[in-house]
What we know:
Blueprint: H1 6-15, H2 20-27, H3 31-39, H4 46-58, H5 66-69
Amino acid sequence: MHIPTPEELRSRREALGMRQTELAKQAGISQSMVARIEAGNVDPRVSTLNKIIVVLNSAEPRKIRAAQIMHTPVMSVQPQDA
């Protein structure tokens, strides 16, 4: 069994668009425990890591729309517009 590093856990969670509180709730642990694990400040039990891994492996990535990350409207320009 591969034991993920704190950085791998954080990267996976962020890639899924999941907040620490969401992961904690679904895994049945506290948000502060998730934060401490991701920071590498605690050596969690194998059972705790397993809960986190199960949640991360079963989660689907959120669909992000351009409107959610864009700050200004997108404009398209054609060569003939110059």
